[in-house]
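Example with several molecule types.
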Amino acid sequence: MTATTTSARPELSELGRSETALRTFLHGLPGVDQVGAEQRAAQLGTRSIKTTAKAQAIDLAIRMVDLTTLEGADTPGKVRALAAKALRPDPADPSCPHVGAVCVYPAMVPYVAEVLAGSGVHLASVATAFPSGQAPLEIKLADTRAAVAAGADEIDMVINRGAFLAGRYKEVYDEIVATKEACGDAHLKVILETGELATYDNVRRASWLAMLAGGDFIKTSTGKVPVAATLPVTLVMLEAVRDFRAATGRQVGVKPAGGIKTTKDAIKYLVMVNETVGTDWLDPDWFRFGASSLLNDLLMQRTKLTTGTYAGPDYFTLD
Amino acid sequence: MFEYAPAPESRSVVDLKPSYGLFIDGKFVDPTDGGSFKSINPASEEVLAEIAEAGAEDVERAVRAARKAYDKVWGPMPGRDRAKYLFRIARLIQERSRELAVLESLDNGKPIRESRDVDLPLVAAHFFYYAGWADKLGHAGFGSNPQPIGVAAQVIPWNFPLLMLAWKIAPALAAGNTVVLKPAETTPLTALLFAEICQQAELPAGVVNIVTGAGDTGRALVEHPGVDKVAFTGSTEVGRAIARSVAGTRKKLTLELGGKAANIVFDDAPIDQAVEGIVNGIFFNQGHVCCAGSRLLVQENVADRVLESLKRRMAQLRVGDPLDKNTDVGAINSAAQLERIRELSDAGSAEGAERWSPPCELPDRGFWFAPTIFTGVTQAHRIAREEIFGPVLSVLTFRTPAEAVEKANNTPYGLSAGIWTDKGSRILWMADRLRAGVVWANTFNKFDPTSPFGGYKESGYGREGGRHGLEGYLNV
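Resulting structure tokens for the full complex:
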């Protein structure tokens, strides 16, 4: 729940005009009790998802994967292979759905775009001097525009954590607004880099800041710092999008990224979505996994459920 | 959209016998007059087993066995040797925890998630904890060489059958007493499996005796002249009767009785976690918890927000088969208890409080009650004063911290309380003023063997758990 009501709706859009208004609002959000939040996340993790529910969850999770490669060593060949995998994750089983999106660096976007064209698989690109975000704003915006021009329809930006931690909320807000504008029609995912924000109170504030500034998705992490997505962080973000929709009517998506490697992990996230924000978010348009190795584990578990036996890793493509 | 498929825990780990005798002097024996009763599964009303009913003669045999074991074996035994047995029991409980958890859920109706994740880990932890005290009693603050009391008569309730057994037996044995324990008549099975564990641990005969039966058996036990100590957990009404019956005798008495705890939510509370705490406070174990947070005191300026969140959260509660691993709220323990919950809830509606339950389908067979909240409750309502002992929450509001304290304390009970606020100083200020044995801050229903538990006022006297819990079993 938030400190806002429907009658406060017009004021919400004006918060970004003043540093004081933003600070007052963000610091007026209800606190998060660390122990309680972690306990709730752990409790949801004990749900037992079996048989038909598991099959359903696996297919949904595959459709939610943002198949990602963000390496200095990425090449056109590498990202084309990844894009091919995104289209047909399991070449042996045409009933296997395609993933949600492919996520690459801006320079790799044109090569992926060729493969994905017309497929329904989205093309996401990190931008804004990912992963540190430590570049002048003009460069970050140019980075964003270039990625969109090359064919990306989703932009994963990083927030300015330095400004956030220093309490310069308006600066963070303005950068998100400017990036959103640079995106044009592309969807904007705002990476909070929760591992650097450190507290759940900060995660909740940053979530609200990103949503107020127009982000279409809020995303946990770059995958480039030691602490990436965790269940409690995702819980706090889910509560934020739930409360934001209640206050404004606008629905924002959530993307945990980094460190989600197994089907078991993915199912825990889906259970959390189901029981925190409900089925409205159980859709690739509103929930994504930023992951790479997760996909093969999902495929292995999927094959196990359909055939009854575990196929070895050699039966799944490495890309 | 995302339906969880049934995920039942297997019953096959439990080897239920058709009938059970009394556990006296290390052996299972038939009752003298051959009486028996049935223990049923409250989720299906299926009969689980035929249980022997102990009469006065059986109680006599059990007390005699306990006395002999106290005089000859357990009393004289060095603490380090007693510890050895208690550690062994603790380890056996851990090894057989799945079996015990399934049996507890079958007999009691509580969800397997709770018996597996809460009850059994705490049971083992209690035995481990008190095993550690057995050879260190001289350092517990009761003199350099405190002595046991003798034979303890222990009567326990049906809400946490095995956990209450552990709370009673572990400190008694660690201090050097022997025990005769009577489990509740609706939930005797895990106590009888515990008796098997005592045999498996080669605990000397007569140190632990289990006599099954209802109120008459319990009365015969606590009134038996050969008993030196009485420990009871249950209703305030029965507690009063026991206090009367032991008055003027040499018996020492510990009572852990009812409660009507206030769970107090301030406007600066972490709302999402407070809502979890409210749910855990009243719907944990179907509200069959003496320290349940059955009165929600919420600051009036956030009451609407908290209630909206609470209702949304309650709609997520999964009520049903206790053995399904995804069940949050199980069956009410007995037809009699269900009747009491219904009667008090109807009184709540009749007195003008507004009743709400989430839409939820209840099974046809067995004893079920949907999670329920009453809003618009005042201090004058029966549902704000009487212990319902079920999944029913009464919501009241307050304006200032002083008013919260006043309302929280305005009850004959005083077992527990909860405070939800981001302000540490307010937690301390409140805790000083709340007349409750346990005060939880930004959490609820948290238990640990190292922490003493017990009540003020009509919630009883004496403490269980921690170093303090030894006092009731030592001659001090």
